Amino acid sequence: ETRYDFRALEERWLPVWRETQPFRSGAEGDERPTKYVLDMFPYPSGDLHMGHAEAYALGDVIARYWAQRGFNVLHPIGWDSFGLPAENAAITRGLDPRGWTEDNIAQQRSSMERYACSFDWDRVLATHRPDYYRWNQWLFTRLHERGLAYRKHSNVNWCPKDQTVLANEQVVGGLCERCDTPVTKKKLNQWYFKVTDFADRLLDDLDGLQDTWPSKVIAMQRNWIGRSQGADVTFVIEGRDQPVDIYTTRPDTLYGATFMVVAADSDLAAELASTADAAVQAEFEAYAERVKTESDIDRLSTERDKTGVFLGRYAVNPVNGERLPIWASDYVLADYGHGAIMAVPAHDQRDLDFARAMDLPVRAVLDCRDEHGDRLPEPAESGIATTGDGTLINSGDLDGLDKTAAIAAIVARLEADGVGRASTNYRLRDWLISRQRYWGTPIPIVHCDACGEVRVPDDQLPVELPAAEGLDLKPKGQSPLAAATDWVTTTCPSCGGTATRDTDTMDTFVDSSWYFLRYLSPGKTDGPFDPADAKRWAPVDQYVGGVTHAILHLLYARFFTKALHDMGMIDFEEPFSALLNQGMVQMDGSAMSKSRGNLVRLSEQLDEFGVDAIRLTMAFAGPPEDDIDWADVSPAGSAKFLARAWRLARDVASAPDSDPAAGDAALRAVTHRTVADCAGLVEGFRFNVVVARVMELVNATRKVIDSGAGPADPAVREAAEAVAIVLSLFSPYCAEDMWSMLGHENVAHAGWPAVDESLLVEETVTCVVQVKGKVRDRLEVPPGIGEDELREAALGSAAVQRALDGAAIRTVIVRAPKLVNIVPA
Ligand code: ANZ
Ligand code: ZN
């Protein structure tokens, strides 16, 4: 052929790769060092879109690079195929979610193959298949045995549109993550995983990821876990036998407490209100009803007008015996700390807003100053709480202590008196995993009147989903599985009596919390994965995926990893040693993602410009973390460049293969410098710079050909081979074809070109060193040498020292890089 034709290349090489499977990971006995490169697996909710194309292009650069470096690379793919997108699509189209899901998987897989993803096709998994979700159930069982899976009644987030509960993580700004409907609360008996047992480890182990995870993701995880250090303080409630604990981060402000607030939706508030007069009771009940529909985000907002009901009861401050009126309000949450606070309006803004709204006293107990040492205005007058450091006032014998000393002193005193103790709180909540939907993993529990909650024995797993046929999948607040009577009715594994199956299914984040381990032992039938395989491959060396998963998925996978570690199944505690978040592909500023629909169709782009050009465009668009605006990039330009690169190999193809040492020295220097630099650039994820450098190399090579040396110059062949190998990370069809024209096979495993260090030595210039105007030495120095460095080098010369013969120096004149003149005294 004489013309670059991307369609012909795709038709030529795709069948070859299908046959040879170049990315099958090394078998047992393969001695090469391992590298586990993992792309987040997709939802099969349609064909691949531009967002996938970006993610898989970037993940592929990394996987293919390590293969070229001689690593035994594991780069698997699968499908996150349970969940609402599939189920809702199935309901609207009146199809069976199973068939619909499998069809989409087949389509996505064939698109991935065409897109030349370097996946190991022997390890594919799909979470909706019983051979996968069986192990979700098995893992649930292990967690249940350890008390890490449990059921409790609680007020849960409820999406009225999807008719299902949502995890806290799935409520974004008070709205359902999936359908943007305002989320309400509902009291239900639900399954949880005890993530909170791991709060400290989940937080502290982030330290080890500091250098290899995006700092933004680490900050989001920290914030989500939300560890806060403070104290519990016990308040006696007048007319109640039991005292009440409150949680505070500011025990130093205890003398400034002027009232107490309990969460309006707490049991305590209801109990305290029950002794009030009828009018207060009615007011309280109406208020509590309203609060139930409010989101936590609104409740904690400092912007909102404060509302509440005085319950007619009093608490007693343990340090000074003062009586504090007790109010019910929404700005205190029922499920954080103890659901009750001591309010210190002078030093907490929400308390101050409340005090001013309800006309309650404000007493400053810290003398807070600005940067000039001037006292800040009284909060009672300014309306601004002083929340910073200061010196204690109005606090009895603690006056004069600074904040830190005061916290220590008060906590010690409370502990000694038995009315308080140091305490730690977390924003993190246990993970609510039950869903009232069909398309998920059935919870492997049987409910028996005689035995209670009974785990389904391992040898009866999987508990398979009943057929969808005949079931009404429409959301209705109760799992569609409840209507599958034959399925629900079973025998109790413990007593053999009649019992019923649990009808909830698991949150699909359970599926994705450990899938990276299942890839290691595909087809294993007596366990989720083989610990020996985990030892060989895991943890994941490089994880690649969207920042949308910065909290939920990563946190849950980290939790599972720690739990599995504690069960002795793996010997590491963090699943993903390094993380790369790629940006999103945008079109006129709107994100291309599963929920927003696709404005640019990937398949059309591939048909028009070819796989290679689209992949190259994704890498060349900018740093991988940045969003790509599709209007700003040029796939046509990429295609043009690929044609230029391809023609190098075409032109060299007929030239004889001879020793590159005889070739053009300048071109050889560019080739070896490019290869040497690109390694570091790939490892630093600077893919766009790598592409730019290959473009330069292609230009330099063409120049040598055109200069008369022609393609026969052995440096040209050397350059063309380097171009093919580096390009194989980005544009595999073009690279494979170049490699083949150059007389080789299988560019993916060509091996990264060896760099001749002697060709990397930079050019030097000769610097003349004079003493009193007389030449005494000549130094070879880099052209960019600095004045100070050159002065040092000149003075250090043995010949110069001899000429000076111990004389003191008056001046040194430096004209970098060519001349130094030394004038002795
Ligand atoms: C008295 C106080 C004085 C407070 C002061 C702050 C400043 P973090 O850091 O988020 O843990 N609080 C405690 N439980 C609460 C609940 N269930 N709902 C809403 N607010 C609650 O915040 C802890 C602080 O938030 C606690 O410290 C408490 O107010 C409030 F100058 O106690 B503080
Ligand atoms: Zn039983």
UniProtKB/TrEMBL annotation:
<keyword id="KW-0547">Nucleotide-binding</keyword>
<dbReference type="Pfam" id="PF00133">
    <property type="entry name" value="tRNA-synt_1"/>
</dbReference>
<protein>
    <recommendedName>
        <fullName>Leucine--tRNA ligase</fullName>
        <ecNumber>6.1.1.4</ecNumber>
    </recommendedName>
</protein>
<feature type="binding site">
    <location>
        <position position="594"/>
    </location>
    <ligand>
        <name>ATP</name>
    </ligand>
</feature>
<dbReference type="Pfam" id="PF09334">
    <property type="entry name" value="tRNA-synt_1g"/>
</dbReference>
<keyword id="KW-0436">Ligase</keyword>
<dbReference type="InterPro" id="IPR014729">
    <property type="entry name" value="Rossmann-like_a/b/a_fold"/>
</dbReference>
<keyword id="KW-0648">Protein biosynthesis</keyword>
<dbReference type="GO" id="GO:0006429">
    <property type="term" value="P:leucyl-tRNA aminoacylation"/>
</dbReference>
<keyword id="KW-0067">ATP-binding</keyword>
<dbReference type="GO" id="GO:0004823">
    <property type="term" value="F:leucine-tRNA ligase activity"/>
</dbReference>
<dbReference type="InterPro" id="IPR025709">
    <property type="entry name" value="Leu_tRNA-synth_edit"/>
</dbReference>
<dbReference type="Pfam" id="PF08264">
    <property type="entry name" value="Anticodon_1"/>
</dbReference>
<dbReference type="InterPro" id="IPR002302">
    <property type="entry name" value="Leu-tRNA-ligase"/>
</dbReference>
<feature type="domain" description="Leucyl-tRNA synthetase editing">
    <location>
        <begin position="222"/>
        <end position="414"/>
    </location>
</feature>
<feature type="domain" description="Methionyl/Leucyl tRNA synthetase">
    <location>
        <begin position="40"/>
        <end position="180"/>
    </location>
</feature>
<feature type="domain" description="Methionyl/Valyl/Leucyl/Isoleucyl-tRNA synthetase anticodon-binding">
    <location>
        <begin position="665"/>
        <end position="784"/>
    </location>
</feature>
<dbReference type="InterPro" id="IPR002300">
    <property type="entry name" value="aa-tRNA-synth_Ia"/>
</dbReference>
<dbReference type="InterPro" id="IPR001412">
    <property type="entry name" value="aa-tRNA-synth_I_CS"/>
</dbReference>
<feature type="short sequence motif" description="'HIGH' region">
    <location>
        <begin position="42"/>
        <end position="52"/>
    </location>
</feature>
<dbReference type="GO" id="GO:0005829">
    <property type="term" value="C:cytosol"/>
</dbReference>
<dbReference type="InterPro" id="IPR009080">
    <property type="entry name" value="tRNAsynth_Ia_anticodon-bd"/>
</dbReference>
<comment type="similarity">
    <text>Belongs to the class-I aminoacyl-tRNA synthetase family.</text>
</comment>
<keyword id="KW-0030">Aminoacyl-tRNA synthetase</keyword>
<feature type="short sequence motif" description="'KMSKS' region">
    <location>
        <begin position="591"/>
        <end position="595"/>
    </location>
</feature>
<keyword id="KW-0963">Cytoplasm</keyword>
<feature type="domain" description="Aminoacyl-tRNA synthetase class Ia">
    <location>
        <begin position="428"/>
        <end position="629"/>
    </location>
</feature>
<dbReference type="InterPro" id="IPR013155">
    <property type="entry name" value="M/V/L/I-tRNA-synth_anticd-bd"/>
</dbReference>
<dbReference type="GO" id="GO:0005524">
    <property type="term" value="F:ATP binding"/>
</dbReference>
<dbReference type="GO" id="GO:0002161">
    <property type="term" value="F:aminoacyl-tRNA deacylase activity"/>
</dbReference>
<dbReference type="InterPro" id="IPR015413">
    <property type="entry name" value="Methionyl/Leucyl_tRNA_Synth"/>
</dbReference>
<dbReference type="InterPro" id="IPR009008">
    <property type="entry name" value="Val/Leu/Ile-tRNA-synth_edit"/>
</dbReference>
<dbReference type="Pfam" id="PF13603">
    <property type="entry name" value="tRNA-synt_1_2"/>
</dbReference>
